[in-house]
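User: Quick sanity check before I run a bigger batch. Here is a single chain. Can you write out its predicted 3D structure?
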Amino acid sequence: TRYVDRLFCAVRPRKLLYLAMDGVAPRAKMNQQRARRFRAAQDANERNALMDEVRQEMGIAMDLGDFGDDAAGDHEWDSNVITPGTEFMHNLSTYLRFYIAERLNNGGEAWRRCTVILSDSSEPGEGEHKIMAYIRRQRSLPGYNANLRHVLHGLDADLIMLGLALHEAHFTVLREEVC
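Assistant: Done. Predicted structure follows.
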């Protein structure tokens, strides 16, 4: 939530905040993602087992905190939990709904003047494509303001191409470098 607050302050939306999570992907892409995630989880398990073995060989007690705050709980994140339909994604959607309601009620005038749309993982399609479809629908309505400014934030590499394909006069892609 602090991250969303930070982005909200940086972008300062005046009319609409559209939060879109990736939903169920087409079958071929889902198979590819699943294979990649399971491979990553298997690699993480192997690294964790190797670290445990090294710690045992070195005689380092896991509960002494020699490797950070909690060496026993220092296992890597399993990215399989971010697959649509998982309990984690359901809990995240619920949490975001409560977060949005709280911000709309107590977040100040900037939040109250915005319409907030949450498209969670129960809706099919990738998040950025959901947003692009929304913009295209709005553009087809009578009275659409052609000078409306759009800011799209995400980590996918195809954001620039999607932004160019919209042919909007004022479209900005906000990206961060992830190390």
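The CA atoms of residues 78 and 169 lie 40 Å apart.

User: Great, the batch can go ahead then.
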